Amino acid sequence: MTNPLCTLSHEDGVAVLAIDSPPVNALGQAVRQAIHETMGKALADPAVTAVVILCAGRTFFAGADITEFGKPFAAPGLHDMFDRFDGASKPIVAAIHGTALGGGLELALACHYRVAVPTAKLGLPEVALGLLPGAGGTQRAPRLIGVAQALDLIVGGKPVAAAQALRIGLIDRVLEGQDMRAEAVAYARELVASGAPLRRTRDLPADLTPQEAAATIADYRARHAKSFVGFKAPGNIVRAIEAATDRPFEAGLTREWELFEELMASPESAAQRHIFFAERAAAKVPVARDCGEVAIASVAVVGAGTMGSGITLAFLNAGFPVTMIDVNPPALERGAAHVRATLEALASKGRITPSVRDARMAAFATATALDAVARADLVVEAVFERLDLKQQVFRQIDALAKPGAVLASNTSFLDLDAIAAVTARPADVVGLHFFAPANIMRLLEVVRGAKTSDRVIQTAMTLGRKLGKVAVLSGVCDGFIANRAMARRSEAADRLLEQGVMPWDVDAAMVGYGFPMGPFQMMDLVGLDVIGWDKENTAGRTVQEVLCEAGRLGQKSGSGYYDYDAQRRGTPSAFAEATIRDFAARSGQPAPTLSAQDIIEHLLFPVVNEGAKLLEEGIALRASDIDMALVAGYAWPVYTGGPMIWGDHCGLARIVAALDEQIAQGAPITVSNLLRTKAAAGETFL
Ligand code: 3HC
């Protein structure tokens, strides 16, 4: 009886194993079993001279089945299968299309030869899940492609295209790709006809002497030390590759497995795997199945400031023609110059080819009159963040845009419903909240107004994917998901300052937690006068007001919470310190002595609390959406998984107790009912 997951057919002495397990042919137990048995059958058949293994559907194996992680293991394992491959007395050829990733590429490495279609990509991306290739990848790859290339491939985690894979020796031939199966069978026949040896990757000689390998590895470690901070996987991967260079294959496998298991049990990997699934969950939003989508062939962006030009670039980079509109000609020229300079820079760095640059330049137009929105299927408003101004612009857009066009506002905290209400078509109005720089940051909050149609929401979610972003759906509220949650961190940080805790201690704790910078470093970067300072109504009531009044506006003025040198390197400021001490003295209480962990909890427990409120108010659909939004929008360290899963990890009862203590000390916060209920019931968010 044939197994539906793995069919076996014969073509003139070549056995073809075709695996079909949608959507991505993950190597779950049933698939492993099917391959193991079918391969056994093919190898035992005296009429078979060679075997080709390939996949049906959109891709070669995408790796081990991640949903099985953490569950009891069921045989056969990948190692059992690969032992059978290694022991074969006939050549096995992997024929790759789509992506060969993780355990999928490890399977190919355990074959004797590998061929791929030109569009195929091959990689060992386990590092992104906080793991390492645990099925021989760290032992076979260095033997096949050399230690230096293996370090790049496995620690970097970025898949390589077929042509590059051929160059580094990861595959043996790039097929034409017209008929992969026939071409792979022909290749297998060639091997048999030429008497090609059974090339077992495990038996290939090392490319470096042990001393050379040790030096290469030490150099790699030193060069990448900074980017490894906080992550556990890169260090373990390097150790596993080291084992490939200083001991026999079997002993290397044992070491690889120890290091793999250590990662699998680590909170860092649990967090990174959570984010993998969070990203995919975020794409699933409650809209009618048959709602359809608006076809977006052209885009107009209204406003040529920092956000407008960043948004324009995001769309251009995704292949959309964009007209950037600003009624102020000098502002339009500045924005357009930024767009063009960025495209030029991408080309000069080799990130895009000159012809792609030219195509994007050609797809870019500018206009000073708003009637240019009439041609667009999507209009994105990115004017100054003031409700009356945005309403005025939306009234005009409403009068000019074609029927059925999607009208989006890039507001970051205003009431989208109040904006939609000035139009005659609130069902077509949606929030598209980009994070600066809009062409770089991965988060796109799709804001659903009270009247936004399913069709428009679905369109926006699809657009997010086309832009290469993670789209997260948010309801309407002040600040939406990411800004609202993180505002609580800033407030908590300010409260510490009022008690006499120094900004550099707060920032150091946040950097230690894994953020690229702390809240006061961020304020200095953005400008103290930009967020939360009213020039007309300032009276030295807060540390920020005093600093602003003294002209200490942050990096741009050479001083803020820190003093800056000509290279914009900050050092603790005596002025800021004296101001903070002065404020703290008024309370009559001595400044608290806080450890970095105390500061982390003081700042981030309120974020968890706000996340709970976002859930109970229905602003966020799921806890994992909040985690995803903060990881993608605020560089929340991915190895902690975001505030909600981190909160689970800390213990919700502990968080409630700590928040109650802050409240007792006068913090103007309230604890979310959902958080209290879950804490009392011993539950978690995820
Ligand atoms: N295991 C289980 N499910 C997987 C999976 C995997 N390895 N890879 C993808 N899926 C699931 C996704 O969760 C998604 O499920 P859903 O439809 O229920 O949300 C579905 O397959 C489709 O995935 P995408 O939405 O991501 O589809 P794309 O076409 O955009 O991307 C892909 C396809 C490039 C294969 C992408 O899914 C991907 O990068 N997958 C992960 C690859 C990976 O990390 N492999 C290593 C696994 S760990 C490993 O192999 C350990 C080994 O060394 C022992």
Description:
There is one protein chain. With about 675 residues, the chain is of the alpha/beta class. Helix content is about 50%, strand content about 10%. Helix 12 (about 305-315) links the parallel strand 10 (about 300) and strand 11. Helix 3 (about 105-110) crosses helix 4, helix 11 crosses helix 24 and helix 18 packs antiparallel against helix 23. The chain binds 3-hydroxybutanoyl-coenzyme A. 3-hydroxybutanoyl-coenzyme A (3HC) binds next to strand 5 and helix 3.
* Oligomeric category: single chain
Q: How far is the first residue's CA from the last residue's CA?
A: 42 Å
User: Could you tell me the radius of gyration in angstroms?
Assistant: 28 Å
Biggest β-sheet: strands ordered side by side in the sheet? 12-11-10-13-14-15-16-17
Strand content: 5-15%
Query: Quick one: how many beta strands?
Result: 19
Can you describe this structure in just a few lines?
48% of the residues lie in helices and 12% in strands. The model has no long low-confidence stretch (mean pLDDT 96).
